[in-house]
Fold this sequence. Notes:
By secondary structure, the protein is mostly helical. Helices cover 47% and strands 5% of the residues.
Amino acid sequence: MTCKGICTRYKAQKPVGTGRYASGQKRCQICEIFIKWEGLWCPCCGYRLRTKPRNLKYKAKLRARVEADSQLESVAVKAAEVEEIEVEAIVVKKATKKAKTAKATKKIAIQPVAIKA
């Protein structure tokens, strides 16, 4: 298995502020480049792509970033659920207010009016 040059079409630029693996890039050891590719196998040489760093220091960084992202996601989901419950409570309150005003207008319309002649 050797590099055929197809991988240069999928060559990935280095991301600013994040790591390569955290941004979804993968590395081919045969072609010796990082590529932006959805599959697990290199489109050029057919070799298995690396999706995680080999160095302990960078493994720890990636693990910490993934944990932080998952915590942020769970907080966002909880906030969305709370907001949804609050919106439902507001809708229920508005519905009860409308019902009270509707009853009051019915009572006013039903009361007889005295006419003086």
